[in-house]
């Protein structure tokens, strides 16, 4: 009985590793996978148009965006790396965060109450 339980636990531990898939190897594969997921979840076919996706931003950040980097510039980084298919600016993951000029003492920029010091 002990062996059966141990074997069962080992199988359970190994199962989650099969749930992960490899990252897309190309922008074309990423667009295909993203479109399949969005269509299955939201019923929106062909959300991304491969001819509009900025391939350089895919290679640099792994992000499917349209257009070019724009907005404020700090060093070599711009605030946005492009747009979503809906036209919403897509933030750069490397652009420095804005300083919190908040309102209330003891509240972080995320709205969490911090301990008083």
Q: Indicate the low-confidence ranges by residue numbers.
A: 112-117
Integer-rounded radius of gyration: 22 Å
Report the β-strand fraction as a percent range. 5-15%
Largest sheet: 3 strands, antiparallel
Distance between the termini: 56 Å
Globally, the shape reads extended
Reading the helices and strands in chain order gives: HHHEEE
Please report the total strand number as a whole number: 3
What is the residue-mean pLDDT, rounded to a whole number? 82
Structural class: alpha+beta
Descriptive report:
Mean pLDDT is 82; it is low at 112-117. This protein has 3 helices and 3 strands. It has 117 residues and is an alpha+beta fold. A hairpin with a 2-residue loop joins strand 1 and strand 2 (77-83).
Quick recap:
The protein is α+β, with helices and mostly antiparallel strands and 117 residues long.
Topology:
Layout: H1 2-19, H2 27-42, H3 55-61, E1 70-74, E2 77-83, E3 89-91
Antiparallel strand pairs: 1-2, 2-3
What descriptive keywords fit this protein?
117 residues, alpha+beta, 3-stranded antiparallel β-sheet, 3 helices, 3 strands, 13% strand, disordered C terminus
């Amino acid at each position: 009985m002990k062996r059966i339980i141990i074997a069962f636990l080992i199988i359970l531990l190994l199962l989650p590793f099969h749930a992960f898939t490899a990252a897309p190897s190309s922008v074309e594969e990423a667009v295909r996978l993203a479109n399949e997921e969005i269509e299955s979840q939201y019923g929106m076919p062909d959300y991304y148009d491969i001819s509009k996706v900025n391939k350089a931003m895919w290679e640099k950040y792994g992000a499917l965006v349209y257009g070019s980097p724009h907005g404020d510039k700090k060093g070599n980084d711009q605030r946005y790396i492009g747009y979503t298919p809906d036209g919403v600016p897509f933030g750069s993951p490397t652009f420095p965060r804005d300083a919190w000029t908040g309102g209330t003492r003891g509240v972080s920029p995320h709205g969490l109450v911090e301990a008083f010091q």
